[in-house]
Design goal:
The protein has eleven helices and two strands, in the order αααααααααββαα. It is mainly α. The protein has one domain (10-203): Rhomboid-like (Rhomboid-like fold, Up-down Bundle). It has a two-stranded antiparallel sheet with strand order 1-2. β1 (162-165) and β2 (168-171) form a beta hairpin. α1 packs parallel to α6 and α6 (78-99) runs parallel beside α9 (144-157). The protein is globular and about 45 Å long.
Length: 205
């Protein structure tokens, strides 16, 4: 296990501030547990990022399938964690109250695995179609794929309306794109979130 180097993690501080502003008692249990788990893994990563990120080369060719479980729980930096978990906070509150904690836990678990599988399939297909083997080595970490799947589910239950992103009200139909741009800007180069999967979720009705 490798702890994060000490320093000011502004994104983490903002995230904790947002959680306490909402009130821990106002956050449903599965949502709260998901937030806590991701924060814990950020502060106490089980492996270095390049040993937990998801790629066709590492998973399919080297048979390192544990990355399917590790990659959603690791984040490239504190801002990556902040944007993902701030999004999870609001989506989780709305969806868990609507679905109930048991169903929401099942949804989170299923999406965590399936978005990783879809990412691998898409990367393999693109690599073969474009004859670009580098796509098989492209490595991804983060909870973003799960969040964009939750976004599609949330839009199904609550079409229309607005969400708050960085203090600005954004129509639901555009929120997916705004979140995608924000994550892109605050994620470092090689270890991006699962953007191919996210883009498909943005294009979903």
């Amino acid at each position: 296990m490798q702890r994060r180097s000490r320093g000011i993690n502004t994104g983490l501080i903002l995230l904790l501030s947002q959680i306490f502003n909402v009130g821990i008692n106002n956050i449903p249990p599965v949502t709260l547990a998901t937030l806590a788990l991701n924060i814990w893994f950020f502060l106490n990563p089980q492996k270095p990022l390049y040993s937990s990120c998801l790629s066709v080369e590492k998973c399919c060719q080297q048979k390192d399938w544990q990355r399917l479980l590790l990659s959603p729980l690791h984040h490239a930096n504190d801002w990556h964690l902040y944007f993902n978990m701030a999004s999870m906070l609001w989506k989780g509150i709305h969806l868990e109250r609507r679905l109930g904690s048991r169903w929401f836990a099942l949804v989170i678990t299923t999406f965590s695995i399936l978005t990783g599988v879809v990412y691998l399939l898409l990367q393999f297909a693109v690599a073969e179609f474009m004859d670009e083997p580098d796509f098989k080595r492209s490595c991804a970490v983060g909870f973003s794929g799960v969040l964009f799947a939750l976004k599609v589910l949330n839009n199904h239950y609550c079409p229309g309306g607005f969400v708050n992103i960085l203090g600005f009200p954004v129509p639901n139909r555009f929120a997916c794109w705004v979140e995608l741009v924000a994550i892109h800007l605050f994620s470092p180069g090689p270890l991006k979130a699962k953007k191919t999967t996210e883009l498909l979720h943005c294009l979903s009705p």
